[in-house]
Specification:
By secondary structure, the chain is mainly beta. The protein is built from no helices and 11 strands.
Amino acid sequence: QVQLVQSGGGLVQPGGSLRLSCAAPGYIFNDNTMAWYRQAPGLQRELVAAITSDGTATYGDSMKGRITISRDNGENTVYLQMNRLKPEDTATYYCLSTGWRGNFWGQGTWVTVSS
């Protein structure tokens, strides 16, 4: 089973920052679009950001202006830098690799924004 390994979540105060990481095997990283989704309790999973294999980034409306998605092709890792976090950003954040081999999800990382 393909594994995307996520790290970097946790508890942060409002206004704080976190960086999430997601490492993937090369064969589902190099040519794939990598994305971050989030899902809060009782809500649907929503797109946070995505980045294509050539580095083109797109952002969902919910966190636009406060986040940056990036990828390190040498390390097969995608990052999500989140700044000025709000309580409503509390959710489980999931990494996704999508390409011709299909979709592969990370295990999820819980982010809690609370004082």
